[in-house]
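Researcher: Let's run the pair from yesterday's discussion. Sequence first, then tokens, for each.
Model: Starting with the first of the pair.
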Amino acid sequence: MKLSVVGIGPGGADYILPLAARVLGEADVVIGYKFYLQFVQHLLRPGCEIVGNAMMEEEERARLAVAACAPDHHVVVVSSGDAGIYAMAALIYEHVASLGNQGAPIELQTIPGISAFLAAGGKLGAVLGHDFCCVSLSDLMTPWRTIERRLEAAALGDFVTTLYNPRSQKRTWQIERARALFLRHRSPDTPVALVRQVTRPEERILHSTLAEFPAGEVDMFTVVVIGNAETFRFRDFLVTPRGFSSRKPVTGPAIQQESFRLIADRLTRTDLSPADRSAVVRCIHTTADFEYERLYHTHGDPLPRWHDYLARGGTIVSDVTMVQSGVSKEFVRRFGLQVHCCLNEPEAIELAQAEGITRAQAGMRLAMARHPGALFAVGNAPTALNELSDGLQSGTFRPAGVIAAPVGFVNVVESKLRLRHLGVDVPCVIIEGNKGGSGVAAAIVNAACALDAPVSA
């Protein structure tokens, strides 16, 4: 008692697998949709019983096949394409499983076939060269809300996508809805191919784009093939690279740029200028913390002004040596920058002891006197930032700008709020809240230096 579900390919005689032909030649009973039986009748042995029914009678076909099983009988159910893809295998196995242990066990097997999407992929050359998926637009057995979620996922995931059952006489709007969903995530110029009656004498292939393909020419005999972001047309072929031309970066600069790109793709703020966007990307790259997008605050369009200042060989003052070390040596060399930190100078140590202040505060007081027009970057000490605010409030110096990114829990938030509300017309970047650090302060300096090559959106 044997029941085989056999995929007979998309229609062309050359596309029936030898294994499928052999199983069909052994059959005592063959059951299938009448239209498909014409493609295999020449393979059946004399005396084989042929049972054909209508397209929409799939569940009845499954019950009939199971009922026809008898000792020493081999029943074969045929499906176009592959028997397991939108075909009879699932219905057959579901029905046999529902019977439990009733009666003698039926020996089941599925014989694969060449699916329409594989045949279409062959005709198109190399469109299935990378990850791909198939989605049926028929909502006869699947709720449309489920189909729509799958389409959205396929489009968002950049899968090469083949659409089955794309359009019928009664279902005409689904293909247009699929197009609209893909256009949310794909370029309008994405290659699309309509492959109709693949491998059959009536075969026709139409090349178009996602925005322009003629939905009215799509029917149930058509496979719609949508390329991914890298798919391109070559002659009458579609090619989806396997990725060899876009492997993961391996050099330091390439890894950095790819990291910047991945971060930029996730940003959501719309009020950031391109310059500020690049600074935010560098802050996140330094910390792996996307909260910096929210914490980043500016006054006075600082990045372009700082770039002009630094490109002329400007001076940078940091509160701690780690900020000093974090400024790119390439930018220091290219622009002839001077980077100073007075924290460990004997004079700063003496001043701190004499005045009862921190060394960071003392070092900042010295630097303000020596380099009053510098760009001041604070990445550690709130006392250093308060020293700068004292000088700004008294009007004793006017720096090129202030980067306020001290980190911690004591007086950190307060020092930033004080600077923000001073009302002094000095360009500033303030990292709000408790977060910050030497790496963040240095990242903002580097963003200003690199402004002639900003991070792409």
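Model: Moving on to the second of the pair.
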Amino acid sequence: MRRSTTVGEVDAGVLAYTAGQDRVLDLALVEADCMGTAAHAEMLSRVPVRPPLLKPAEARRIAAELARIADDAAAGRFVITLEDQDVHLAVERRLTEKLGDLGRRVHVCRSRNDQVAVDLRLFAKGRLLEAVAAAAELSRTLLALARKHRKVPMVGRTHMQPAMPSSVGLWASAWAEGLLEDIELLQSAYELNNRCPLGSAASYGVPVPIDRQRVSDRLGFARPVHNVLHANQARGKIESVILSALGQVMLTLSRLAQDLILFSMPEFGYFRLPAEFTTGSSIMPQKRNPDVLELLRAKAAKVLAHAGLVAEIVRAAPSGYNRDLQEAKAPFMEGFDLTLSSLRILQPLLAGLQVDAKALRRAFGPEVFATDRALELVAGGLPFRDAYHQVKAGLGGLAGRDPDAAVAAKTHLGAPAGLDFPAFGARARQAAAWAARERRRHETCRARLLGDRK
């Protein structure tokens, strides 16, 4: 059995196999595809050839219909059929149904290859900005926790064993600084992604004097990808880079989740998780389980695996477009979903976290002060190795030392009593402001191409 599609007759089994998940996944790309098509049509109306590829009035009619398509998609009224195969052909079908010959002319000087490349880059721009904003918000929540409890002593651990005096402020702000560094990775991925591949067509350009710079500017990209072959070959690799940046965020969150699980155990009792972020047992009435945090660890593993999976998909691909890339779309999109949901679920959890200062102080045994005492002896003139052995031989003599005083004594840069909360806060605000500025730029471009639909 053969079925008719926009691009010819295809065996029904082949059509189902090759279409894959695109009919579902591409619904997230409808607005991006409409923006790219609107910018492309406007550019075609300015190409200096006779007869014109499109007239300005025709480009405006196309843009108006694209705006309606985007509206329908946002309202759940736009459908991608199996015969369409993907968002690009579904949008073209709709344009042809509504505009006749204009819909059949809009695809000139481009390929589905550069269409999907620009769609994914526009999609990624929006999602990366969401990730930066969510990470900045979570870092501010951690900093608020750290500032509020900055003087509360907490046993610092290495190898999970008691090590040296620390504080809740140091612990919480360490995760905040980790997130702030992860934001820098997200911003780097954003800048690499912020280049327009449209106009590269099937990877080899077209014999028509199209204006790729204009299309790039209208879509709000920093610049076009210069080489038309690289514009399409970068697919897969750019997704892997972005997933790798998301993976670093998830590494931070997963390790934070592990600490929260451990330190909220009754055996530690340092923290109490908000009851609404725990779940009960089907058989044990007393249980409150940290399921949110456990699932976060698993989701982190998935994001990291997705980055490797996408890299593996393109690892042995030859130059030019290859259909293998279609299989990178699902893990790419899921990577964003997993990361954003994890950032957003941790924010209220941490905002509601309770700190038990008494339990934290009770955890201090004499051995926690050993290194501090050795350094005190060094400050009195004793060689460090002699001080080390002297303290080791007399750990019992450290009983009764004050953990609050130990924390207060560490005043150098970045130590428990030397944390620069204003600088941390400024970095978080700057990241949030950057994401907001970039979001406004994107919304301005969308409004110019498709109209302001708010």
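Researcher: Give me one sentence on the second I can quote.
Model: Strands lie at 2-5, 8-11, 153-158, 161-167, 195-196, 223-224, 271-272, 354-355.
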